[in-house]
Amino acid sequence: MGDWIGSIFWLLVTLGVLVTFHELGHFWVARRFGVKVLRFSVGFGTPFWSRYDKHGAEIAVAPIPLGGYVKMLDERDCHVAPEDADKTYNSKKIWQRALILLAGPGFNFILAFLLYWLMFVVGKNEVYPTLGEPQKLMQSAGFQKGDRLISIDDEDIRSWSDVSLALITSGIDRQDVPVIVETANGSQQLRTLPLSQLADDVDEEDIISAVGLSVWRPDRPAIVGEVTAGLPADLAGVQGNDRIISVNSELVQDWYDVVTVLSQAGEEAIELVVERSSEQLTLSIPQRVMDEETGERKIIGVVAMELAPQEQAFAERMFYVLSYGPFQAINKASAETWKMTSVSLEMMGKLVTGKASIKNISGPVTIAQVANDSAKRGLSWFLSFLALVSLSLGIINLMPVPMLDGGQLLFLMFEKFKGAPLSENFQLKAHFVGLIMIVSLMSLAFYNDILRTVS
Fold first, then answer.
1. Residue range(s) defining the domain that contains residue 24
2. Mean per-residue pLDDT, 385-408
3. 179 pLDDT exceeds 60?
4. Same domain, 311 and 199
C-alpha cells in the first residue's frame, strides 16, 4: 500500500473511530434523558448510506469525514407535534442539556483510556532511551555515550517519546531540568541539563537537536559485510570487505551515511567508490531493485558487517516490550491518560500565551501521515496515536468557542444566571464568530501541513 493511499486509509479509520465515539456520547446520553434523536451522522454533507433504528433515528454516513453530529428534536429548529413536546432537547433541564453536551468529549476521554489500556495489555515494542555521543548542551552538562535516561524533571522516562515530551515542554519555558541517568557501568547519576541556555530563536521543533541529544547506535564502519548474489551490487562487482568511500560523489563516514545516501538516490545509476586491498575502485550500479521481503524499499543488495559481540549484546539490551497484565494496566492507562491530558493542556496554554509556536498546529495531512507511520509500526503504536488524538479532540471540543460543545456549555451557564435562554439573534452572531474562528484555525492547520509537506 503506497504512502498516500495508506495515509488516506488510516486517516479515515482514525476520524471514523473518533468521530463515531464522540457522537455516540451525545446520542447515548440524549436517549437516556428521553430526547428524540432525528439523525446520528458520521461525516458532513448528504449521506451516502443511512438506516433507521427502531426509535426512528436515522443512522447515516456522509462523505466529508471531518466531523459529525447528532440532530435532536428541538422546537427552535422545527415544528414539534404536541405528543413529542417532552422529547425535545430544549425542554430538558439545564443540567441535563449540559450532560448531553459533555458526553461527547467525555466519551473521547473514555476511549483514550480504553485505547491506552489495550496498548499496555497488547504490549508496545520500545527502545530504552540511551544516548549516543552527546553534543552541545548535553556534552557541556557531562552526559556520556551509553547513558540511559531514567527521569527528567522528576518524571519517569521509559521511551524516547517520554524524552521528547519532557524536553520540549521544559525547553519552551527555558528551565534547567534535573536528569537522572544510568551510566554504561550501571551506576545512577544526577545531572542538570541547562535548557535556560537555549537561544531565544530556537523553536520547540528544534529543541531536541539544539540541546545536542543523539540516539545510541552501534558503531558500523562503511564496510560491506555480504553481497547478495544476482542483485545490482553483485552484478556491478561489489565484494565483501569493500570499504565504501563515497556514494554518488558524496563522502560517507559510516554505514548509516551509506544507507542515507542510497535511500535518497533516484532512478539513475549509482556510483560507488570503494577501497579494496589498498586500491580505490569506481563501480557503477545501474539501478536499485525492489526488496522482495518488504516490497516497500529499493535496495542494491549489500549488508553491513556483523557487530562485534560486545556491541551486539549491548544493542540487544536496548529493546524491550512495555506491557502489563489486564488489572495492572488499568492504573497505567489512567496515569497515561492523565499525563497526556496534562501535557496537551499545557501545550495549548503555551500556544494561547504565545510561548509555543503556532507552527505546532497540525491538520488532517499531518494526522494522516502520522496515522500511517504509526500503523506501520504495529497495533500498539497505532492505539497510542489514536488515544492521543482522541484526547486532543475531547479537549478542543471543550474550548469555549461557539459551535463547539464548550461554547454551548457557556451559553447554558449564561442561561442559568440570566434565568432565560440567550436570544436567538445573539446566538446566531456568536455562532458566526465561532465559525470564523474554526475556519481560521483549520486554514492555519492546512497551511502548516503544506509547509511540512514541501519543506
1. 3-33+92-123+384-454
2. 92
3. yes
4. yes
Hey, which residues does 227 pair with through a beta bridge? Answer: 302
> Please, which contacts does 408-417 make with residues 24 or more away whose CB atoms are closer than 8 Å?
408/101, 409/98, 409/101, 409/102, 412/94, 412/97, 412/98, 412/101, 415/94, 416/94
Backbone angles phi, psi at 140, to 5 degrees: -65, -25
What per-residue confidence (pLDDT) applies to 320?
86
Say yes or no to pLDDT of 432 above 90: no
> Who contacts 420 (Cβ-Cβ below 8 Å, separation ≥6)?
none
Position 443 in a domain: yes
What distance in Å separates the CA atoms of residue 265 and residue 286, rounded to the nearest whole number? 12
**What does the alpha-carbon distance between residue 127 and residue 159 come to, in Å, rounded to a whole number?**
6
Q: Of 368, 351, 364, 356, which Cα lies nearest the Cα of 447?
A: 364
Catalytic residue ranges: 23
One domain, residues 23 and 106 = yes
Residue type, 255: W
pLDDT at 1 (0 to 100): 45
Between 231 and 60, the higher pLDDT residue: 60
Which position has the grid cell 509537506? 453
Q: Is residue 314 part of a domain?
A: yes
- Over residues 236-250, the pLDDT tens digits come to 888 989 999 999 889
Helix (H, G, I), strand (E, B) or coil at 36: coil
- Domain count within the chain: 3
Statement to judge: residues 274 and 401 lie in one domain: no
User: What residue ranges in 248-318 does DSSP mark as E strands?
Assistant: 250-251, 270-276, 279-285, 289-290, 298-299, 302-304
Domain boundary residue, one of 247, 273, 305: 305
Residue 377 placed within a domain: no
Of 234, 227, 239, 226, residue with least CA distance to 275: 239
Structural Rg of the chain based on CA atoms: 28
Q: Is the pLDDT of residue 287 over 80?
A: no
pTM confidence score: 0.84
- Residues 126-144 pLDDT 10s: 889 999 889 999 999 999 9
**Are 117 and 135 in a shared domain?**
no
Q: Are residues 183 and 312 in the same domain?
A: yes
Q: How many Å apart are CA 236 and CA 281, to the nearest integer? A: 11
Q: Answer whether residue 455 shows pLDDT above 80.
A: no
